[in-house]
């Protein structure tokens, strides 16, 4: 076989074998494609199953979320009913304990709820806390009217001093009693105590306890709250304790005229009238300094005088303060509210205000829900919508509820900023005067809206007057 034939044979056999191999490859490719198609179909089926599972899961999750929201709404309504029921019960109990002869318990309780609701709105506390503060003031000895006047001052003092309402109320009432002050002067008392705390070492409550030790004696000498507190601060700065300073100051006041006589300081003017006590004290201090500041010399000169009085006088001789300037600072009014406003602007204060508003809304919803239950049970009217305050006016108009209609109108105007609380109060009072609503309905509206301005305050005081009968024109039903 020559070389050419051999080459041809090799080429033919090689092509034949390659073709056979290519056929095998093509067959495997076809089989593989079929398997891929089957796998793709299975994958699409699996994906479709996953989508169906996802839709079912999404529906379940949505249902759970919806159920949770409804559950929370239900809990909120229950909490609202409970909050209103407790608030109402506490006001009734307090009214029963504090009412005077001839006072109507329900009207008095309504007045307390108005005051507590207004305080809750103004001072960012829960209404229950405001009612507790009111209770503390009444238990401490104030009348209902004085307690309502002093409520705001007591709340501010408790919050700024971080003490409970009972402590703040007791200390406040004690100082007021020492100086013969009424509830309308409670803010003046708290301002004085807060100023003393700012200028002295101790807290406002420390100074209240110090004044409790010397206030009555100071008042008998003709000294005012501010006068006495100024002398107390001067002593407290050096003795380190307002209570101890109060004890020493009381003894000094008791022996003042004896001390003045022994030091040759006149206590009466040329006309025979008693001189101003502050002037006598300043003259006594000046005369004591002339003795050289020697305690032994002072003691020898003032034999028979109580040691605590001598210690107080000796301490006064060391004072560097100017009495009139310090007294002016002690008597500065408005300082408590300035400090409280700054607290309301803090994160804690803003959260407190938000919580107070939520508390007010819960009580509104709770009262509406409880009223609806009774209303539906008695008359079976479709009034479920009255739970929501925004629909109250519509329902009130539909059923002829004049008071409810007025409340809705005033609330809308207040929320839009078109009227002030005072204007709202005068509006409510005018409807009472015109005989469109009763006084009790007016107080209920004021409680709901948390206002005690304008004519509302007058309505509250009228409702609390012992023995007063409700005018016939306000006694009719609608």
Any overview of this molecule?
By secondary structure, the chain is mostly helical. Among the domains are: 177-341, no CATH class; 342-474. The protein contains 20 helices and no strands. The protein has helices at 3-98, 105-123, 127-139, 144-161, 165-178, 186-199, 204-220, 225-239, 242-263, 277-290, 295-301, 307-316, 323-330, 335-344, 347-379, 392-399, 402-415, 421-433, 439-449, 455-464. The termini are far apart. Mean pLDDT is 77; it is low at 3-12, 14-19, 63-67, 376-387 and 466-478.
Can you summarize this structure?
The chain has 478 residues and is mainly α. The chain has helices at residues 3-98, 105-123, 127-139, 144-161, 165-178, 186-199, 204-220, 225-239, 242-263, 277-290, 295-301, 307-316, 323-330, 335-344, 347-379, 392-399, 402-415, 421-433, 439-449, 455-464.
Keywords for this entry:
478 residues, mainly alpha, 20 helices, 0% strand, elongated, disordered N terminus, disordered C terminus
Fraction of helical residues = over 70%
Reported for the largest beta sheet, the result is: none
Number of strands: 0
What is the string of helix and strand elements? HHHHHHHHHHHHHHHHHHHH
**Total DSSP helices:** 20
Percent of sequence in beta strands: under 5%
Structural class: mainly alpha
| Distance separating the two termini | 134 Å
Rough shape? elongated
**Mean pLDDT, all residues:** 77
Q: Work out the radius of gyration.
A: 41 Å
Low-confidence stretches: 3-12, 14-19, 63-67, 376-387, 466-478
